[in-house]
Amino acid sequence: MSYKAIIVKLNNVREHSNADKLQLATVCGNQVIVGLDSKEGDVGVFFDVDGQLTKPFLMMMNLYRNAESNKDKNKSGMFDDNGRVRAQQFRGERSEGFWLPISTVQKVFKKTPTEEGSEFSLIGDIVICQKYINPNTLNKQSSQKSSKKIANEMFHQHFDTAQFGRNSNKIGVDDVVVITEKTHGTSQRVSNCKIPLETKWYHKLFNVEPKSVWKDMIGTRRVILDDKKLKSDDGWHSSEFRVAASSQFLGNLKKGETVYYEVVGYETDGKAIMGSHSNSKMKGHLDKDAYKEFLETYGDTTVFSYGCAEKEHKVFVYRITLTNEDGYSVDLSWDAVKERCDKLGVNYATELWKGTPSSLVVNTAISTDVSANFNEFVKNISEGKTKTGHNLMEGVCLRVEKGITPLILKEKNFEFKCLEGIIKDNSEYIDAEESQ
Length: 436
Prior knowledge:
Layout: E1 5-9, E2 11-15, E3 22-27, E4 30-35, E5 43-47, E6 51-53, H1 55-60, E7 87-90, E8 93-96, E9 98-101, H2 102-108, E10 119-120, E11 122-123, E12 126-127, E13 129-131, H3 135-144, E14 162-163, H4 164-167, E15 177-182, E16 186-196, H5 201-205, E17 212-219, E18 224-225, H6 227-231, H7 239-246, E19 257-265, E20 276-278, H8 288-298, E21 301-303, E22 313-323, E23 329-331, H9 334-344, E24 347-348, E25 351-355, H10 370-381, E26 395-400, E27 407-412, H11 414-425, H12 432-435
Parallel strand pairs: 14-27, 22-24
Antiparallel strand pairs: 1-5, 1-10, 2-3, 3-4, 5-9, 6-13, 7-8, 11-12, 15-25, 15-26, 16-17, 16-19, 17-18, 19-22, 20-21, 22-23, 26-27
């Protein structure tokens, strides 16, 4: 997913519950911590959690915690050397992003965009932010760049899912929204595609198309796995596991049908798909009471098992398309996805809510504004435990039928964002989704 800063105004500026020199505000649906000089409607630059501010930006803006790394050695900020924007609690209040007044940025970067809603990762020719990818994953990406990848114009990748907070304005108050649970596993796709047989010299000479066959193909998020890879592995999960996760689709798909799904639980050898993670380091991201409650709820270790027994996995379909031989693709509606999954005998993403923002009962304690109430509702429904297996929920996806391709947005659970940040700090961790 591309990562960019955005120009936004502060909303709902209010007192911090436990810090006299700080305030709270809402930006893109996220709670941020700002200074006492910030006020309602102030324009600034916002950076989402899981982003990374670059070394030139951190240094020139004096944002490093270690003052020796800043341009002004007498000033220090709040960022570690890696420049990550983290989700964490500060004196009992959540911090879900980083906001800077635009005037502060313009003092250093004269060409800073000023129009509200502008998204950017460069100011002039200087890269100021990017998605954080840990070093081990970057090394894996580099090692795979030289590998030959097969392609098929009928077998599309799933598009990147945008963040709800930044795009909530795209949902009308009377749009029908389906909210489903976002599971934490490995992405996979399978499709029945038209595959041309080997091209001979005379096909090009006489402008004749080679013969083709319709064949099921398996893919990860970005890579199509050819027969050779499936005879070994895809670098992450065994071929046995990938085929097993596709077994209910293989031989049962319509021509041009592509199914996108998440695979959770365990591989066939008993290895947890997303590993196991100690919850002890959550202590540095949550306050004392919240940390204690987290351990009481989820225990000392998090394994995203979703109720699976060892060596068992589950599949959750979230999207199905029909694509013709020219690559033109149309999405099935959510109701049609569920009906198709029922016929295939597979699970679809757990539906948590369906309705319109205007159908929600207005909670006047929050706001009389329908959109504000809906945003709060989405935040609340994304928290807590998953509905399948009682794991920590990753978050939710919102789907609105918009033309031939639905609008799909995501909202992550705050505690999951904290844990995900900790996981990525592990020097041995490799993000399979980003590296393939």
